[in-house]
Design brief:
Layout (H helix, E strand, L loop, with lengths): L1 H22 L11 H18 L2 E6 L6 E6 L7 E7 L19 E3 L2 E3 L7 H16 L6 E7 L7 H9 L8 E4 L3 E2 L6 E6 L1 E10 L5 E2 L10 H10 L22 H9 L4 H8 L12 H4 L5 E9 L9 E2 L2 E10 L5 H15 L5 E10 L2 E2 L5 H14 L4 E4 L6 H8 L4 E3 L3 E2 L10 E3 H19 L1
Parallel strand pairs: 3-6, 3-7, 7-18, 8-19, 9-17
Antiparallel strand pairs: 1-2, 2-6, 4-5, 5-20, 9-16, 10-14, 10-15, 11-13, 12-14
The structure holds ligand BES and manganese (II) ion (MN) (2 copies).
Length: 453
């Protein structure tokens, strides 16, 4: 690996500058205002894959944003790694909470501050640069395919169609994904489980129009009051979700896995300090790490209605809304959970209001094996560059396509993430360590070399 490390050292600055160019493109997939920029980011990825030396690079149009494909097949008899990542990002709002503009990347205290720096542009681009380094140094030990999408943050709706239609072209022995995080740089970890997701919106209607809150207040259902009652009733005093049959399909996690999680170097005091909270809160009988990994949850993501402008307006509103997400664990079906929610939510609504539930997107949870050749190659690669064996740990976020790859391609994934839980992804001031960026580019070739052996 000597010439390779030399190459990384020589090209360090350019690798960072190229990432900065990508981070300057505000490729927010959720907001139509940025649609042009999402296409620009797709173009960028395509050009860089070509420049790195990939063959058959294609910008594949979909009904949404394009998927970028590229490959280098060195020998059909050798194993094939499919690198997946995404070039779209979450909205940067609220802008005023950023200490520097979200699409003007800067390095502060060793971190790259920009929307998408960790999720997932910085992590995805490590693979492009690691590939370039391997290729330029005659050190690519097996076949590689790239599939980089632009709709991950909005549910990957068109990716599944693409994968189904191109399953032969995408055939591979493992899917390699860097879109997760580690506990800390001192305690490297590999993600072995992700939660699923059911996301929906509810609308509660009281009277047919906004009313004078004095003339009608007290006699007419206030949809905001009612919605608050309904939402409050979705948890019991043990902070368990009260939707009937919600836990029916949840699998018990083995005592060994729970014991291993308990031994992970998680610092609760630091966690609380980081979030400025005197205490944590969650389901009785489970630790913080368990609450965010092996347990399903229900959270309100947004709630609105009534008058929120300047000053006071004495109004009894006609409508109230909320966006609600449920994080799911293996064996829970997001479709079934969505139906259970709908039935329950309608059943608890008082007759004085009407409710409407609109499902958005969803996805299933995933667990990845820790005894596969690919996992062991990833663990060995981390050990090589971090000097420590990584801890296998489940995490709370969702990457629904992991289960889809399993179903459609029959291929397992390795979640080799280099971010940190503290990177503030989806939040203001998202950042990614310069150390982590370079460490990823250094580690990925070791994965390839151990996996190809
Ligand atoms: N990269 C994240 C998922 C993630 C982050 C997993 C950190 C583990 C640790 C991904 O981009 C993401 O944000 N996924 C969404 C789901 C998607 C369907 C919108 C999520 O988890 O909210
Ligand atoms: Mn991501
Ligand atoms: Mn994300």
């Amino acid at each position: 690996m000597e010439p390779l490390n030399q190459y990384l050292e020589t090209n360090k600055e350019r690798f960072l500058n190229e990432l900065f160019d990508l981070l300057r493109i505000p490729s927010v997939s959720a907001d139509p205002k940025f649609s042009q920029d999402v296409h620009k980011a797709a173009e960028f990825v395509k050009e860089k894959l070509i420049a790195a030396g990939a063959d058959n690079v294609a910008l594949c149009p979909t009904d949404g944003f394009p998927i970028i494909y590229g490959e280098k097949i060195i020998d059909e008899s050798k194993p094939t790694v499919l690198c997946y990542g995404h070039y779209d990002v979450q909205p940067a709002d609220p802008y005023e909470l950023w200490t520097s503009p979200p699409f003007e990347p800067v390095v502060k205290d060793g971190n790259i501050f920009a929307r998408g720096s960790a999720d997932d542009k910085g992590q995805m681009y490590m693979h492009v640069k690691a590939f370039e380094a391997m290729l330029k140094n005659n050190a690519l030990p097996c076949n590689i395919k790239f599939m980089i999408e632009g709709e991950e943050e909005v549910g990957s709706t068109n990716l599944e169609i693409f994968v189904r239609n191109n399953s032969e072209k995408l055939k591979c022995d493992v899917v390699l994904i860097s879109d997760t995080s580690m506990i800390s740089n001192e305690h490297p970890s590999i993600t072995t489980g992700l939660r699923g997701l059911a996301y929906l919106e509810v609308e509660v209607t009281g009277p047919n129009r906004d009313l004078h809150s004095g003339v009608y207040g007290g006699a007419v259902a206030n949809p905001i009051n009612v919605l608050c009652d309904m939402i409050a009733s979705l948890h019991d005093e043990k902070r368990r979700v009260t939707i009937p049959r919600f836990y029916d399909d949840v699998q018990d996690v083995s005592a060994e896995e729970r014991a291993a999680t308990a031994k992970a170097p998680f610092d609760l005091a630091a966690y609380k300090k980081d979030l400025d909270m005197d205490d944590v809160m969650g389901e009785e009988g489970f630790s913080t790490l368990e609450r965010v990994s092996i347990r399903p949850t229900l959270d309100v993501n947004g709630i609105w209605g009534g008058y929120i402008g300047q000053g006071a307006k004495t109004v009894l509103p006609s409508k109230a809304y909320a966006k609600i997400s449920m994080r799911l664990v293996p064996n829970q079906s997001h479709e079934k959970i969505t139906r259970l929610f709908e039935t329950h939510f309608e059943s608890i609504a008082p007759k004085a209001v009407k409710v409407k539930v609109t499902p958005h997107h969803g996805g299933e949870a995933a667990v990845t094996p820790i005894d596969s050749k690919a996992y062991l190659a990833a663990a060995k690669a981390i050990q090589k560059t971090y000097g420590k064996m990584p801890i296998p740990l489940r995490t709370g976020g969702s990457i629904p396509i992991v289960t889809m790859f399993e179903k459609v391609l029959g291929t397992q994934s390795v979640l080799l993430g280099f971010g940190l839980d503290s990177d503030a992804i989806h939040s203001p001031n998202e950042h990614y360590g310069v150390f982590n960026y370079y460490k990823g580019i250094e580690t990925i070739p070791y994965f390839f070399s151990y996996f190809a052996q």
